[in-house]
Design goal:
Layout lengths: L1 H15 L19 H4 L19 E9 L2 E12 L2 E4 H5 L1 H5 L14 H22 L4 E14 L2 E9 H6 L9 E11 L7 H4 L6 E16 L6 E10 L15 E8 L2 H11 L6 H8 L24 H11 L14 H18 L17 E3 L3 H13 L7 E3 L2 H7 L11 H6 L4 H6 L2 H4 L8 H10 L9 H18 L8 E3 L1
Antiparallel strand pairs: 1-2, 2-3, 4-5, 4-9, 5-8, 6-7, 6-9, 7-8, 10-12, 11-12
């Protein structure tokens, strides 16, 4: 009863009070500006501190979204600082903002490549949008001029220009033609048509932020004597607001642009789907679900060396199927031994190659060795296979090839300003025995490489200013990499793989 009585008193007090705006209840944020000396140090990240306690008020901007056929209110922006906000809209609904829902599900069989592209292209675009936003690796640029044009009645497109000095200083090394954009224009006056004072008071503050979500489609490098840079063209995929302010189309209007790069595996996946028309016969057969041409090998299973685990009956069947078919799909839930099966397949193929002469068509390929390329979806998956093979007594001679990102963790290039996320540092860290014994960018610095002395000298000179690097040192690095690739007949610079 006492609780109910106090609640009634509070309600009466609110009713008796005059309607007040909410701006007085919002906390006043202060932003610390850097001095001129601090600004000389270029950094990629700016620390923003905000302390919140129970009962504190956050300024948000609302929008609407459709749920079960009805428009319901949803948070669009969260204002953390006067000049920093978080777009909850594209974080919560990346597919809606940067793509569109696919109209057809995947199938087991496809009539032709046109049908395959029509079904799989939207699915890949949905996944690209979701994974890019989930990566949380966006780049926010303030006061960037954006040129908008209205192509159709409800369609917008535009372009932005990034000077080459910005791209170099800020280390914008992503593919700018494969990015998502969240374009915001803050500080716009809110024109209310509500006549009732009590209803209009709920719209506070009296300004809002205009938001548009776009997708980049083309990059044109412009080289001028005064201002080199890249012109990035994009189209607007999602407009949360029906009304477009006039200032959007005015000349030299500055916006806040958040660049969300697509992940490299997703870019390659989309390119693979689009280029299926020019793929080989076996690739088309696999993708379309048609009959796969079989090349009879009649492989004989050899005795496994010590260190490799024994297989159960289902695993042996999977290995037999893989050894005697052109293409085999082996799938199963976690913990069923797919990695062990992969290790056995690698070993059997290695033994088969060592006992049989390589077939070649081009006479220049006569001296090339047969190699086995083992690729995986992550660095960890390939490292596990490498550890198994290193533990075996008579293991194949292998070479671990990492991506350039992992190589930069061990040997950053001169004047490198790229900062890696914690996820990258955690996921791309392998065991020391793999990195030092079979890794390409470590082996090329060992004494077996005749150019290792040049490379090590180059590493020492990295500590000097970038302008002091000699041409001979740079040439030595390229020669050393060529030695390692010649030893294994093949090199991969953008993949995580094992060569045998």
């Amino acid at each position: 009863k006492s609780v109910h009585h106090s609640w009634l008193e509070k309600t009466k007090q609110v009713e008796n009070q005059s309607v007040m705006t909410l701006s007085s209840e919002l906390p006043q944020f202060t932003t610390n500006l850097c001095t001129s000396e601090e600004q000389k140090v270029l950094e990629h990240e700016v620390n923003i501190n905000l302390r919140l306690q129970p009962g504190d008020t956050l300024q948000v901007q609302m929008t609407s979204e459709i749920k079960r056929g009805y428009h319901v209110p949803a948070v669009q922006l969260v204002h953390v600082k006067p000049k920093f906000e978080i777009c909850v809209n594209h974080v919560h609904s990346p597919v809606t903002c940067f793509s569109e829902s696919a109209g057809d599900p995947s199938r087991c069989y496809y009539s032709d490549t046109t049908e395959y592209i029509r079904i799989w292209k939207p699915l890949c675009e949905m996944e690209s949008a979701a994974t890019a936003v989930a990566e949380s690796d966006s780049i926010i640029i303030e006061n960037l001029v954006v040129h908008f044009t209205r192509t159709h009645e409800d369609t917008l497109s535009g372009n932005i220009f990034l000077p080459q000095t910005w791209i170099s200083e800020w280390a914008l090394e992503c593919n700018l033609s494969k990015c998502f954009l969240c374009i915001r224009k803050r500080g716009l006056e809110l024109k209310s048509t509500v006549n009732n004072l009590e209803d209009s008071a709920q719209m506070d503050p009296e300004w809002y932020t205009w938001v548009a979500h776009g997708v980049t489609c083309r990059v044109e490098e412009q080289k001028n004597t005064t201002n080199d840079g890249s012109k990035i063209e994009f189209y607007v995929n999602h407009l949360p607001m029906e009304e477009i302010p006039k200032c959007v189309f005015e000349k030299n209007t500055c916006f806040t642009v958040e660049i969300i790069p697509k992940l490299l595996p997703d870019i390659r996946k989309e390119n693979a789907v689009i280029s299926i028309t020019s793929a080989s016969v076996i690739v088309k057969a696999i993708a379309l679900g048609h009959h796969i041409p079989k090349e009879v090998l009649c492989l004989i299973q050899f005795l496994l060396p010590n260190g490799l685990p024994n297989l159960n009956q289902r695993q042996r069947q999977a290995v037999d199927k893989a050894l005697n078919n052109t293409f085999t799909l082996i799938q199963g839930p976690p913990g069923t031994g797919k990695t062990v099966v992969g290790v056995n397949i690698v070993y059997y193929f290695f033994e088969f190659n060592s006992k049989n002469q390589r077939k070649f068509v081009d006479p220049q390929d006569e001296k090339k060795k047969q190699v086995i390329l083992y690729c995986g979806p992550s660095n960890k998956s390939v490292d596990v296979v490498a550890e198994y093979l290193l533990k075996s007594g008579d293991s194949p001679k292998c070479l671990r090839v990492y991506s350039q990102r992992v190589e930069m963790l061990d040997y950053p290039y001169p004047d490198c300003t790229v900062q890696f996320s914690r996820r990258t540092l955690r996921n791309d860290c392998s065991s020391p025995e793999i990195r030092l014994s079979i890794t390409l960018h470590h082996r090329m610095r060992q004494d077996q490489n005749p150019f290792s002395s040049h490379i090590r000298a180059f590493d020492k000179r990295i500590q000097l200013p970038f302008s002091g690097l000699s041409r001979d040192a740079q040439l030595g690095l390229g020669q050393g990499s060529g030695w390692a690739s010649q030893e294994r007949s093949q090199s991969c610079s953008e993949a995580t793989a094992l060569l045998f």
